[in-house]
Specification:
Elements (H helix, E strand, L loop, with lengths): L1 E7 L9 H11 L6 E8 L12 H11 L5 E4 L9 H13 L3 E4 L4 E2 L5 H32 L11 E6 L2 E6 L1 H15 L4 H10 L12 H4 L20 E2 L2 E5 L5 E5 L6 E2 L10 H11 L24 E2 L7 E3 L4 E4 H6 L8 E3 H17 L1 H16 L2 H27 L3 H22 L7 H18 L2 H11 L3 E5 L5 E3 L2 E5 L5 E5 L6 H4 L2
Parallel strand pairs: 1-2, 1-3, 3-4, 12-16
Antiparallel strand pairs: 4-5, 6-7, 8-11, 9-10, 13-14, 14-15, 16-17, 18-19
Helix pairs in contact: 2-13, 3-4, 5-8, 10-14, 12-13, 14-15
């Protein structure tokens, strides 16, 4: 009987020998006639992370799906998952292919009659454990925050130093000088853009070590994000503004908490600014904002049709409405000439030329023929598919040899690493192969796009047109020549069969003489 062992522990603060201890415990309970052919482990990985998103978990599932094992041993079911839904799904997947599961510490056995009741209870206990741990962790961090200890990474202007009972923030003199400069200049009427430009010109290190942006300086008053909104600079730390929540795929998402849950304290040792410096900036930023939410009362600004879709020919960054008449490079506007020398074009000329191009696509039959030919060329070019199939056959042979070697030798770290890498590559190739459409009706796709284009052009509303072009067009890189002419090639996004999105060139592009911007 071929057996696999899976081990996991949650944080890097636990004993790194934990997985070895779990393996030893499982081996001691190995049934007669069983031989361990594979061992998979995940270290410092939370049980709330879906097993398919853990390296060791993926390797285990590969063994299961390939039916390379007959028995799976774990210390307890919570090693597989502490999420009740993920645990149930995983156990069912393993048992469905006839593999027996044994939990040596919690006495789970998939061949036992009461296994479903025990599995349900273990899953519920695992979830309650995580909920309790989460609440205790938050309570402990709140206590440390109120006691003046550091519970997050350092804000710009501070360092973190070890202290009795934890870590504390201390002022970084060099960064504190920059903070005071930013507040003095903004309080005296300078714009965040101008300040960012000057800091970049002087090569002053930014909070993230790259270039300064308006978002780093101005941020979001509603979220207390950005240097100009951080009350820590006047000795008022704010804790519990947000939380991290895992989605259905196990990815962590940052979620803002309501202001009623924020926890504020006072620590004058962290003060960098005077009250007057803080008040001057607040008077300028908070004018016209709701005092409860920190949000502007005014409606949103007018939107452009192609802002954000165009790309700067100098730095390939997004181009936005930089004033009432022009599209310009967002990096130049936000970060200054030291980051991008900048490029701008008249909005009315861009909009007129782009809309004219779209109308031309609808009216001229040669664009349809070009589109159909482009799709056919892509479908005929099956070299990628052939290479993928050849590589899959090669990987199948390689994995079989590695499994035989591991079964014969008991497995070494090098062999296991090679097996995991080969199986991960095979999984990616199979996933890519699975989404390939068998057939695409290019003319049907063209008719659908043409209908959507016609509908968009007939609406006339900037908001509706902007939404439509975002769905139909890929980012448009503007190009220039030595004569000062500007043009672009239009690339259309087409929803192909099978739910796969394909970028297909639908037009010949702007010629400077005819469609110059």
């Amino acid at each position: 009987m071929r057996a696999a062992i899976y081990a996991r522990y949650s944080t890097d603060q636990q004993n790194a020998k934990s997985t070895a201890d779990q393996r030893r415990l499982c081996e001691a309970k190995l049934p007669d006639g069983a031989q361990v052919v594979s061992f998979h482990a995940d270290e410092a990985v939370s049980g709330s992370t879906p097993i398919a998103r853990r390296p060791g978990g993926r390797a285990l599932l590969a063994d299961v799906l390939a039916k390379r094992i007959d028995l799976l041993l774990v210390e307890s079911l919570d090693r597989l998952s502490r999420d009740q839904v993920d645990l149930e799904s995983t156990v069912r997947r393993v048992e469905r292919v006839g593999i027996r599961i044994i939990g040596v510490a919690d006495c789970y056995d998939s061949q036992a009659g009461g296994r479903k009741v025990l599995r349900t209870m273990r899953g519920l206990i695992g979830e309650l454990y995580l909920d309790d741990l989460r609440e205790k962790t938050r309570r402990g961090l709140t206590g440390k925050a109120l006691a003046g200890f550091a519970v997050t990474g350092p804000a710009y202007g501070y360092l973190i130093e070890k202290a009795d009972g934890g870590s504390r923030y201390v002022i970084d003199p060099d960064q504190a000088t920059v903070v005071r400069e930013i507040f003095d200049r903004y309080g005296s009427g300078e714009s965040a853009q101008k300040i960012a430009h000057d800091l970049n010109r002087r090569a002053v290190p930014s909070p993230r070590g790259s270039s300064w942006a308006v978002s780093a300086i101005y941020g979001s008053p509603a979220k207390l994000a950005g240097i100009l909104n951080n009350p820590l600079y006047v000795g008022r730390p704010v804790w519990n503004r947000s939380q991290w929540v895992k989605d259905d795929e196990g990815r962590r998402q940052r979620m803002d908490r309501p202001r009623s849950e924020w926890i504020e304290s006072v620590d004058e040792s962290l003060r960098i600014l005077t009250d007057e410096q803080w008040r001057q900036v607040r008077a300028r930023i908070d004018t016209g904002r709701d005092p409860e939410t920190g949000r502007k009362r005014a409606g949103r600004p007018a939107r452009t049709i192609f802002g954000g879709l165009l790309r700067c020919p100098k730095c390939h960054g997004a181009m936005i409405a930089v004033d009432a008449r022009s599209y310009g490079c967002a990096a130049r506007k936000d970060r200054g000439a030291s980051v991008c020398e900048g490029f701008s074009v008249r909005r009315d000329r861009v909009d007129s030329a782009m809309l004219a191009m779209l109308r031309l696509i609808i009216e001229r039959p040669e664009f349809e023929e070009q589109f159909v030919a482009e799709v056919a060329a892509q479908l005929d070019d099956d070299s990628d598919s052939n290479r993928r199939s050849d590589r899959l056959r090669e990987l199948d042979r390689q994995i079989a040899r590695l499994v035989d070697a591991i079964a014969a030798s008991g497995g070494s770290d090098a062999l296991l690493a090679r097996l995991k890498a080969a199986e991960a590559e095979r999984g990616e190739l199979r996933a890519a192969q699975a989404v390939e459409p068998e057939q695409i009706d290019a003319r049907a796709i063209w008719r659908e796009m043409k209908s959507r284009l016609s509908e968009m052009l007939a609406k006339g509303s900037a908001d509706e047109m902007r939404m439509a072009v975002g769905e139909l067009l890929a980012p448009i890189l503007l190009q220039t020549n030595e004569n000062g002419e500007t043009w672009a090639d239009v690339v259309m996004k087409a929803a192909a069969q099978g739910g796969r999105a394909s970028k297909l060139v639908a037009g010949a592009g702007f010629e400077p003489a005819t469609f110059g911007l």
